[in-house]
Structure prediction request, 320 residues.
Amino acid sequence: MILGAALSQLKINFVDGVRGEDVNEKAIPVPEDRNNHLKGPVLGSWRGHMNAIHEVVRRNLSSALIMEDDVDWDVRIREQLHDFAVSIRALTQPLRRQPGKYADRTYPTPVDGSPKKLPDMNFYSLPDTVRPLISPYGDNWDVLWLGHCGMHFVFEHSNLIPKGRVVKENDVSVPPKKNLWSINKPFSLVDEYPEHTRVVHHAQEGVCSLAYAVSQRGALNMLREIALKPATDAFDILLRFYCEGTHGRTKQECLSINPSLFSHHRPVGPIGASSDIGDHGEGYIHEALTDMVRFSVRLNAEVILNGSTNYVDQFPDSAE
Prediction:
């Protein structure tokens, strides 16, 4: 991960992982049924994420990107994050010429009579919005969920989460549809949009916390809503509750992207080594791969070190 970050000109700091058995039982926020709380590696994962959030608050960082140590990204990550920031601003910043109004008519919260579905915003012709003062990603967000195993578009029946989407077609960094997958079904990105499309939208039922950014406000809220409330589910599910305002949590401002920008890297070796939390089964990975990333930084390390830009494309378009 250090190598990938260096090759991408990113500076990173590490927060130590935590073994579940090292977490003091008395320090775990538990529900009334004291047996219904996290245990083992899943508990350690929750504690590790909370330690990272604690650091964001302690150091008073305006924002931070938190990544799990098995992620990978495209060599074009800076360009991708720029486009993501532009899209977030279109969804959440006020319109420049209409103070107090937004391009997304359901933002910040749908009201009675709000449309169940909105026309997509075209990335190449986004509305003119107020310049943000706090972050290039806008002034009103708590979490940017950038790496996941599945994320729904906002459900039509949702009465809490805005429904706006920014759609970028002809994105050459997106693999062909046949190489995309999602734990969440239906996989609406593949079902509703043409090849090589990436969509920015508000978060709904996210799975896996591979990479996410938090604002200082978001980190403070996360300590209250996840660190101090009963640890009944894996961290990514608690993050979902936090974003959507369910299971006793207060809704936060969370946005995401499909397909995600950070994905699992699977190195050569036993499949079971892919996770410290879940059982990934038997078998052996003979060729390293990264899910849904075309120009993987990890897989192109030698190319970059040699000063070349002839990157290896994991998922080239077929000649058909």
In short: The first helix runs from residue 2 to 7. The two ends are 36 Å apart (CA to CA).
